[in-house]
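In the current project phase, the collection of sequences with tokenised folds has grown. A sample record is quoted in full directly below:
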Amino acid sequence: MRDDDEIDAGPGSLVFIPRGTRHSYRALEADSRVLIFDVPAGNFDEFLGELDGMLAEGMMGAQAMAALTGRYDSDPA
């Protein structure tokens, strides 16, 4: 979601989000997968690396996102 715009992106969809645009997304089905391209790479890869580490250590998703909020200018969705 961006601002008040909401997009229902089904299987095989491509969604372009311009750099610097605040947005969020959520998977509606448990077995959903998302492929993200960050071009050119910024600090998003560092964010994902830290998030992955926290999840691997057993931290819950919402708790991990909240822990990273101030470090990567993000807001948990």
Remarks:
- The radius of gyration is 13 Å.
- Residues 6 and 25 are 9 Å apart (CA to CA).
- The chain has a mean pLDDT of 82.
- DSSP finds two helices and no strands in the chain.
